[in-house]
């Protein structure tokens, strides 16, 4: 990795979601770099007010890798999908559950801003502190509800891609 958390996360998730440029770099990183360069050009031309547009576009790009992480771990923590089981408070997918909650916590404020009911649904399905067994509402339904907030966040399903179970 490069040592840059979001850059590395985007490149890690890209192949898992089919969002990789021909160069092998994630589409998120290609687009973020183009946006950063456009913003730099505006700054160098003295257009400081115009940089706000690039900042908004940059934030959208930085939203995609945590969303991809959330979708991946919603899938991996659904016992119906992955065959995992829980006995007491110990599940065969505890690591995935914890990672899913970490991604959820990172992206929940943006989801909540778009639709508080969807944010609560995510929390009710993957919060490691408040949920006995994750994904009680099922991967397909929770994913569909999360996707319903994409337009509000300025992204598309194509931006996020489709999780490939074997990657």
Summarize the structure.
This protein has 167 residues and is mostly helical. It has helices at 5-17, 27-44, 51-76, 79-82, 94-114, 116-126, 139-147, 150-153, 157-160; strands at 86-87, 90-91.
**Low-confidence parts, pLDDT < 50 over ≥5 residues?**
none
How many strands, what sense, and barrel or not for the largest sheet?
Answer: 2 strands, antiparallel
Which strand order spans the largest sheet, edge to edge or round the barrel?
1-2
Proportion of residues in β-strands: under 5%
The N- to C-terminal Cα distance equals 18 Å
Number of strands: 2
> Order of helices and strands, N to C?
HHHHEEHHHHH
Keywords:
167 residues, mainly alpha, two-stranded antiparallel ribbon, elongated
Explained architecture:
The protein has 167 residues and is mainly alpha-helical. It is built from 9 helices and 2 strands, in the order H-H-H-H-E-E-H-H-H-H-H. It has helices at residues 5-17, 27-44, 51-76, 79-82, 94-114, 116-126, 139-147, 150-153, 157-160; strands at 86-87, 90-91. The chain has a two-stranded antiparallel sheet with strand order 1-2. Helix 3 (51-76) packs across helix 5 (94-114) and helix 5 (94-114) packs antiparallel against helix 6 (116-126). The longest helix is centred in the middle third of the chain and has 26 residues, at 51-76. It starts with a helix and ends in a 7-residue tail after the last helix. 31% of the residues are buried.
